[in-house]
Amino acid sequence: MEKGHKLKDHVDLISETVRKTVFSYIPAGPIFDSFWSYRSNLKQKRVLEFDASVKEALEEISERELHSANFETEDFVDLMELVYIKVMSTRSAYKLERFRNILVNQIVEPNQENNMSLKFVHLVEQLDDVQIIMLHDFLNHEGKEIPSLGALYSDGEDSPNQIHQFISIKVNRPVTLSELEFYLNELLSIGLIHNKSFIFTALGGSSTVNNYQISPIGKSFLEFIKLYC
Q: Which residues, other chains included, contact 224 with Cβ-Cβ below 8 Å and sequence gap of 6+?
């Protein structure tokens, strides 16, 4: 542990370097019209606001000291640069908070053993806010048989209006039942949710019953994007 080197000193130096690198991806120059100028300014604004939120989070734990070697690995540099690149194209405040959590966690306590780190950063961008919230809801009901979204959100009774209204309130925007079904199917296809279906037999007949559960990778993803330091 380096004495006298506080966390904020490291962050100021790192964030300035990364900002310069990230801004190099933004088109600029006299050949671009006002559209490109607006686009460039918007992306810079997002990065600068994100940078401020990261510093604010780190100031709350500013007494912690760091090993400088944490910032001298290819894994850390690649992850930090990718996060800033994703931030440039992210409008969702919910996702920006997740990106902030990832970066703060890796600055304070780098996870050198997580081979899914870059994949998880891509997933934050790829998934809709609703899907991340759904994952949390599946985690909160882990172990309970969940044959449908109705069972997840309405005590086992399929009530389409109640389901999408409940989610709409959570994300503060209208969400249709068709969108929720699409989101669930996508979570299944990428392995964050799996269907542990079983055969139900009664009166001489049998049928397959769905049982949607969060997968181990889904739990690892949620753990990765929460602020744990």
A: 102, 105, 111, 114, 116, 117, 120
